[in-house]
Write a structure and sequence with these properties.
about 260 residues, mainly alpha, two-stranded antiparallel ribbon, 7 helices
């Protein structure tokens, strides 16, 4: 049986013969080049219509009214819907929304952890506290309340122990001066030195009344034989008991050479 030949096809626009590669489907009416040109013409028509529609669409106003503060502000862009809030109110609104979302998330975490016993209430403000396993114990106060409680305890202790507070202050002052001068430092109390020297001033060689307190001129004071400002160290061998007035008169001077020899020996 002889094969039937396919009829010759030509483009309806340019008359170019079309080489049909398949017998299935409708025969093409245009060549490949004419189809590309037709597609480009249609795209140009669509672009012209879209630009015409944009020109006919009214532009949004250049200014808008804030929904929160009712102030008029200039728009930074012309596309899209007009913003509801001015930049300052928008920033405040976003921050408030962030705080609200964080609070909701924390509340959800607290509710979840409360089921497993991981949260407890502060003793002072009743705020929830997270119990960390590595802390070694269950906390009883949150951080702000704990700091306030510690400061309150310090004030109460200082009011109940004024002499001890003064002694600790003098000791800290001596240590600080010695550390500033990068000298040796030993930790001891003023009373320890006074008892060692039998409450006798090493400058005027008279007895010190232990019942007198600072700022009485004849009260007990701690003197560095070689002053810290001249290279002396805050050690037991370099401190002696004196009257406050004797110590102030000596200032940062050195004692006679014989006394220094006794100190060295």
């Amino acid at each position: 049986m002889a094969e039937t030949s396919m009829p010759e096809l030509r483009c309806l626009e340019c008359g170019t013969p079309i080489n049909r590669t398949s017998k299935v489907g409708h025969p093409p009416k245009r060549c490949a080049g004419c189809r590309i040109l037709d597609r480009r013409r249609r795209q140009k028509v669509c672009d012209r219509r879209r630009r015409a529609a944009q020109r006919l669409t009214p532009k949004p106003p250049a200014s808008a009214t804030c929904a929160d503060c009712r102030a008029t502000f200039e728009r930074t862009g012309v596309r899209g819907a007009a913003p509801r809030r001015c930049p300052a109110c928008t920033l405040a609104h976003n921050r408030a929304e962030m705080r609200r979302k964080n609070a909701e998330r924390d509340a959800a975490k607290r509710a979840e952890y409360a089921l497993h016993g991981r949260w407890t209430a502060c003793r002072d403000c009743s705020e929830p506290i997270r119990c960390r396993r590595s802390s070694g114990g269950t906390p009883v106060r949150c951080k702000p309340c704990l700091k306030a409680h510690t400061d309150r305890q310090k004030v109460e202790w200082a009011a109940a122990n004024p002499e001890k507070r003064k002694e600790i202050g003098r000791k800290g002052a001596h240590v600080r001066r010695a550390r500033i001068q990068s000298r040796d430092v030993e930790h001891f109390t003023d009373v320890e030195i006074f008892e060692r020297d039998r409450w006798i001033c090493h400058l005027c060689r008279t007895r010190i009344n232990r019942r007198l307190a600072w700022p009485h001129p004849r009260s007990a004071s701690l003197d560095h034989v070689i002053p810290v400002s001249r290279g002396g160290a805050h050690v037991r061998a370099n401190v002696k008991a004196t009257h406050l007035v004797c110590n102030l008169r000596k200032n940062n001077g050195c004692i006679p050479q014989g006394e220094q020899l006794l100190l060295i020996g």
